[in-house]
Design goal:
356 residues; Elongation Factor Tu (Ef-tu), domain 3; 6-stranded antiparallel barrel; globular
């Protein structure tokens, strides 16, 4: 059974191209990926990301538990702050990347990828030796990402709360028009700035409607297609592409969310720091688009790695990609094998989009 978010009827009425994504019927685009992508970079767009798993974990020893199952140092979080982290298996492979919200001293919210929600819940129960309560609240909730340089000015139109008080990777419970105590965080997956809004189904639909009623806001609905190209320009990892259970956070360039001074599941392996591959950013020097799964080869036609994500950047108007090179094959110039043709590529630095 394909699940529907609280905004399914909105997407259909707006003419969205709908697809099955992680078991949910989700909009890929409305007017076109490139149009939507550039609109978020220049103005403001709204994403339905209600498919993301929202999990509450609470109890007396919740901090000890989260320190055990996540890679980042949760003890650094204060109430009202958000942390990017991941969970790893015993071999150091990534089970999922996630956001950790500290709601109170004994209560946290984890936001996980839709495709991994059930797996993560099972993993948490398996390691719950602390008598904690773990609740999946996803079905009763909605989640909107309001992204772009005009996101703050638009959201400010429907609240008396000074949104500038919410610093990057922080959150607060605020009133949005008649909807009380709505969790709003300064987070997102686009690199364009903005907020994510968490609420129950009834409230979240009213918030959607209120935002679109603001005159001359320039607000457009944005599909998951542009969400993917936007995150690629920033070099953000996507589960199933850059990260998976066979890739460690160190190989994926996520050492900054791994605290090896604490013991967590998989830390013993990660402390050995044995990397079989390294994440890279690259640009194509010839016409072509690198797609997930394409081989990276050297001038001797030897495979030296693979593409994990690639696109023609709508904003930069050049072909960019993310991939992995095996650590024994590191080099600056190489080729992408596209339909048996060798297309020249060169290393560059993350993010592709600078100073945005």
């Amino acid at each position: 059974m394909i699940q529907k978010t609280p905004f399914y009827s909105n997407h259909v009425s707006l003419g969205a191209k709908m697809v099955d994504y992680a078991g949910f019927s989700m909009p890929i685009y409305y007017n076109g990926i490139n149009i939507e992508h550039n609109h978020v970079r220049k103005s403001v767009g709204i994403f339905d990301v209600s498919h993301m798993g929202q999990l509450i974990v609470e109890g007396l020893n919740v901090l000890q538990f989260l320190q055990k199952i996540t890679t980042n140092n949760v003890s650094k979080l204060t109430i009202g702050k958000v942390q990017y982290s991941c969970m790893t298996n015993e071999n150091g492979g990534i089970l999922d990347d996630l956001l950790v919200y500290k709601l109170s001293e004994e209560k946290y919210m984890l936001v996980v990828n839709a495709s991994n929600t059930e797996k993560i819940i099972a993993w948490m129960h398996k390691h719950n030796n602390f008598n904690l309560k773990i609740t999946n609240i996803t079905k009763n909730r909605g989640l909107l990402a309001l992204q772009g340089p005009k996101a703050l000015s638009l959201l400010q139109k429907i609240t008396e709360y000074d949104l500038k008080k919410i610093s990057y990777y922080s959150f607060d419970f605020i009133d949005l028009l008649e909807e009380k105590g709505i969790l709003v965080s300064a987070t997102g997956y686009t690199g364009a700035g903005g907020f994510e809004i968490y609420a129950d189904k009834g409230s979240i639909n009213k918030i959607w409607e209120a935002l679109f009623k603001v005159k001359d806001s320039g607000l457009l609905p944005i599909g998951l297609g542009a969400r993917d190209t936007l995150r690629m320009e920033m070099g953000y990892c996507l589960y199933g592409n850059e990260i998976n259970e066979l890739t460690t956070p160190l190989e994926a360039g996520l050492s900054w969310i791994v605290d090896l001074n604490k013991d967590f599941i998989g830390s013993r392996i990660l402390k050995k720091n044995k990397l079989s591959k390294k994440i890279i950013a690259f640009e194509l020097k010839e016409r072509g688009i690198a797609r997930k799964g394409y081989d990276l080869v050297n001038d001797k036609n030897e495979k030296i790695g693979y593409v994990s994500s690639g696109t023609m950047s709508p904003y930069l108007n050049k072909s960019i990609g993310i991939g992995f090179i095996y650590t024994n094959s590191l080099c600056d110039n190489f080729f992408i094998l596209i339909r048996n043709r060798k297309i020249k590529a060169k290393l560059t630095q993350f993010p592709f989009l600078k100073n945005n």
